[in-house]
Amino acid sequence: MSEWTTIARPYAQAAFDYAVENKIVTQWQEMLLFAAEVSKNETVKSLLTGSVAAEKLADIFNGVCGEQLDQQGQNLVKVLAENRRLQAFSEISVLFNQLKADFEKEIDVDITSAVKLNKKQQTDLSKSLEKRLARKVKLNCSVDPELVAGVLIKAGDTVIDGSLRSKLNRLSDALQA
Fold first, then answer.
1. β-strand 106-113 against 151-155: which pairing, if any?
2. Which pLDDT score, from 0 to 100, does residue 30 have?
3. Residues 6+ apart with CB under 8 A from 107
4. What gap in Å lies between CA 34 and CA 17, rounded to an integer?
């Protein structure tokens, strides 16, 4: 999978630069997401790994995508087809979304709590995390009763484990040492 990430990176960056320059970031995000879903289709996947000529493959792919892709999106499909890289669309979409989030100084934060958080708790957590991370925060809340109490926060590479289960595990480790 990391091979496709490496391959996808320059395409995602070029698409993002173009989208920012033309103020159509959201439109490109939607196009890339659609194209990524098309590339995951089993029938399309078999074509991508087959021996279909690049030009024909681009025409088929663009035909399936239809009006979901504008002229520049169709050109991207042609370039990817010529380089036998249409399979990278999923990674291009993921990397594009990361570039967009960085550009907008936004981050998705996964919050796992032992009980459902009310609106005030979510708002307080959001404000606190926005200060700490210096970004706009989008919370994705879930419940895991196994945490016993507290919260587990994941923001990119940052993990803040304030769960009672984690504290009990640390206490147990300290007592055994």
1. antiparallel
2. 93
3. 101, 133, 135, 136, 137, 138, 155, 156
4. 19
